Amino acid sequence: MDNVTPCSTNKLGYQQWFCFLIYFLVALDSLVVVPFSASMALDTVGSSAYAGYLVSAYAVSAAVVCLFVRGTQHHINEQRKINIALTGITLMTLITAHISDFYLLLIVRVITGGFGGILAVRVLNYVLLISSDEQKKRNLALLFSSFPLALALGVPCLIFLSSTVNWQQGFSVLGAVLIGVALLAIFVVFNTRNGQPAFTSKPTLELSNNAKPHRQLWRLGIRNNSQVNNRKIVFSALILVAAVLSTFTVSTQFPVLLITNLHIKSELLSSCYTVSGVGAFVLMQAYARKPFHQKAVMALVWFCSLLMVTTLVMGFEFENLHLAAFAFCLFVVVSSARTLVVSTELITGLNEVERPIFISLQNALQHISIAIGGAVGSVFVMVEIHSQQLDFSMLVYVASALILLVPVLWVRFINYGD
Q1: What domains can be seen in the chain, in order of their start residue?
Q2: For 83, phi and psi rounded to 5 degrees?
Q3: Residues 395-408: tens digit of each pLDDT
C-alpha cells in the first residue's frame, strides 16, 4: 500500500477541481438528452412518444452498474479505472451524434449510462481518497453541486449552440469537450506512469500485500461486521431514497403544471431552470464553506423540508403563473440543497469500510429514485372532466407527506447514532 502525505493546504488541489469537471460533464451527458429526446425520437423512429425510453435507458443502466462498482483504497487503481471509463463515455457520446437508428441509439445510451455510473462511483471515491478529514465535507459538497450547475449552465449552453432540433451538433460539442478532458486525464492529471499523484490521504485500512485491494476491501466490507454497521447503511440509504423520491415526485410535475395549466412561455421556463440551478449551486457552496454541527444540520433539513412544502402549496394551489414560476425556482433550489446536504452528511459520517459500500448504493438509489419519483408524480395527477385541465390536489398531499418523512427519518437517524 502506498504511503503518501495528505495535502495540508486549505485550497482545493487541481485534482479535486478536475474531478469536479468530470462530474459536471457526466451530469451534463445524462441531462442534455432530456431536451433533445423528442427530436432524437422523431429523427430516428418517427414518433416523439419514444423519447422517454432514451431518458430512462441511461438512468437504469447507470443505476445497475453502480451496484456492481465499488471503490478501492488504491489511488493509482482508481486513476486507471477513471481513465478507462472516461475514454468509454467520450467514444459513446461521439458515436451518439452519428446514429440514425433508434434501437442502436438506445443501445449506445445504455452503454453510455454504464460508463457514467462507473465514473460517478470512481470519481466520488477518489475525491474522498485524496481529501484530508477536514476537507472531505467541502470537497463532496463541491462535487455534488456540479449537477445543478450542469442543469443551469451546461444544458442551456448546448441548447443555444445546437437548438433542440439539431441534437447531433449538441452531442458533437459535448464529445469534443470530453476528448480534451480525457486527454488531460490520461496524459497529465491521472498519468499513472508518474507513480504518485500530487497528494492523497493515508489509508486507514491495512490490506494484505498478497491480496488484490478491491477483493480484500470487499471481504472487509461484507464479512467483518465489527467494521460495518449494516443497519446504519440501510438507514442511510432509506433517508437518501426519501429525499430524492420526494424531490422528483414534485419537480417532474412542476413543469407540467406551468406548461399545461398556466401556459408558460419557453423563455420563462428556461430562465426558471437557469435561476434555480445557479441558486442551488450558490447555496451549496455556502454550506460547504461553513462548518455545521449536528443540531445545525438537523435544523437545516427541517427548514428546507418545510420550505419545500410551502412552495409546493404555493405553486400548485394558486392559479397564478408568476407565483408558480417563483415557487418552482425556490422548490428546485431548496430541494437540491437538501438532497446534497443529506448526501454529504451521510457519506462523511461513515467509516472507511462502510463508505465505498454506501457510495455504490447511493448512486444506484439516486437513479432508481428519480425514475420512481417521476412515475409516482404521474399517478397522482388527475384530469378534470369539464375543463380538461390537470388536477394536482392529490399530488400535493402525497408529496407533502414524502417531503416531511425526510426530517423525521433524519431525527431518528441522529438519535440512533447517539
Answers
A1: 10-199 (1.20.1250.20), 229-418 (1.20.1250.20)
A2: -60, -45
A3: 999 999 999 999 99
